[in-house]
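To the wet lab folks,

You asked to see what we're planning to order before we commit. Fair enough. Below is the target structure as tokens, and below that is the sequence we designed to fit it. If anything looks off to you, flag it before the synthesis order goes out.
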């Protein structure tokens, strides 16, 4: 897996991702402490609102930002967005009002909503071989899981020496280092998309996404992932501290075990995907998530919770890590940024629904009811994925173009009206999937 790091451009981008994630992890810890400093016992409500603002920015800003910046060169765009994020992090230690937090978080997460899809869409152009790209996806998943493990430990070490305000300096340093690493390489020039109005460019990724059966299946799997993941992220602290009467170290341990399960799957996936289809692996992962969430009703001890969280972490990674392969396969290179932005917005839309649902159910009907409801939600996602994503999902699909003249370049390139067969993606000539 580490062989792809021999590619200098990818190595720089991966290092930029890891360092920026560590900085973001430090900011997460510092933001919680800042909220408590400003709001005291109401800090949870402040953080919940900040998380909702983050998701709204991700869902609403990503497609618009991509459409507005699709003609800009990638390297200065990514560097500029890193600098914006660093500037916002630099301002956070000086806030004195809660609304300042909300405003700065919206600006920072809006920049991230533009940065992340552009970054993700660049990797397939750097690593055109599907095997290499699969390994890059697994490394990216590992980076996210390591951030969940390392950032809290690093924050704890720094807090033993400095005040929490200094953690924001680590965030600024992370974004600056990311900008320098991106600045140090030459990125492939993005193929320009079709010239059209801003509304058409904003909605193009969504239209391609929702017209492609395998991506409609991916959306259903995103929903199953969010249903199970929200139970872990939102309710771990309640389960550990209230149900089992344990302390903060055990909360951190439970979340670390979830991350460990995800890392195990990420390490295994490149070899698994060489033998099994993306559909089989991702639906199996989603089934594991739904079944594991239902099994939460039976958890009676902290040890059993840890085993369950390990299983859920494995399913979490298996269900979502291959998604980049589906996106890469489902669009022309010039449409990939729009498609990655659509995936970014739609997947976070699933989390925007499931985060408050998991928290509300846990608080009102109890954990057993929350586990049952979120398991049912995940099962709906699995059933929909199986229905809308055909098991026979070839890249090349026979189809017809009765509206094109016989001498059209597309027909001359790929065959006649009656014998037309090529790798099929949604574009200006193929507005609908063949039935």
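Sequence we intend to order:
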């Amino acid at each position: 897996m580490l062989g792809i790091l021999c590619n200098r451009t990818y190595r720089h981008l991966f290092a930029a991702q890891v360092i920026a994630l560590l900085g973001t992890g430090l900011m997460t810890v510092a933001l919680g402490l800042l909220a408590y400093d400003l709001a005291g016992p109401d800090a949870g409500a402040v953080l919940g609102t900040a998380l909702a603002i983050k998701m709204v920015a991700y869902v609403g800003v990503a497609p618009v930002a991509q459409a507005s910046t699709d003609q800009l060169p990638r390297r200065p765009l990514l560097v500029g967005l890193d600098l914006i994020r660093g500037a916002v992090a630099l301002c956070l230690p000086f806030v004195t009002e809660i609304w300042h937090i909300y405003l700065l978080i919206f600006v920072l997460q809006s920049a991230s909503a533009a940065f992340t899809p552009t970054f993700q869409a660049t990797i397939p152009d750097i690593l055109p071989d599907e095997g290499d790209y699969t390994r890059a996806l697994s490394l990216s998943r590992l980076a996210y899981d390591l951030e969940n493990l390392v950032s809290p430990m690093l924050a704890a070490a720094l807090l033993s020496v400095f005040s929490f305000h200094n953690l924001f300096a680590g965030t600024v340093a992370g974004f600056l280092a990311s900008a320098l690493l991106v600045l140090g390489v030459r990125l492939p020039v993005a193929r320009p998309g079709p010239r059209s109005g801003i509304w058409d460019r904003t909605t193009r990724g969504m239209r391609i996404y929702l017209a492609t059966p395998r991506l409609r299946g991916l959306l259903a799997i995103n929903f199953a992932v969010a249903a199970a993941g929200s139970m872990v992220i939102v309710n771990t602290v309640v389960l550990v501290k209230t149900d089992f009467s344990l302390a903060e170290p055990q909360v951190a341990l439970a979340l670390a075990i979830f991350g460990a399960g995800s890392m195990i799957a990420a390490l295994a996936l490149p070899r698994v995907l060489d033998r099994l289809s993306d559909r089989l692996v991702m639906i199996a992962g989603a089934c594991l998530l739904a079944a594991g969430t239902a099994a939460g009703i039976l958890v009676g001890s902290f040890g059993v919770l840890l085993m369950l969280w390990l299983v859920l972490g494995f399913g979490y990674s298996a269900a979502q890590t291959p998604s980049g392969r589906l996106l890469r396969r489902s669009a022309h290179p010039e449409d990939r940024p729009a498609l990655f932005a659509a995936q970014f917005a739609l997947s976070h839309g699933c989390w925007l629904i499931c985060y408050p649902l998991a928290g509300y159910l846990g608080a009102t009907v109890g954990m057993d009811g929350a586990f049952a409801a979120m398991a049912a939600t995940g099962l709906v996602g699995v059933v929909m994925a199986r229905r809308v994503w055909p098991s026979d999902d070839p890249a090349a699909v026979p189809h017809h173009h009765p509206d094109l003249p016989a001498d059209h370049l597309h027909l001359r390139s790929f065959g006649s009206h009656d014998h037309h067969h090529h790798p099929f993606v949604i574009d200006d000539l193929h507005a609908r999937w063949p039935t």
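Structural context that might help your review: The chain has 15 helices and two strands. The longest helix spans residues 8-39.

Thanks,
Computational group
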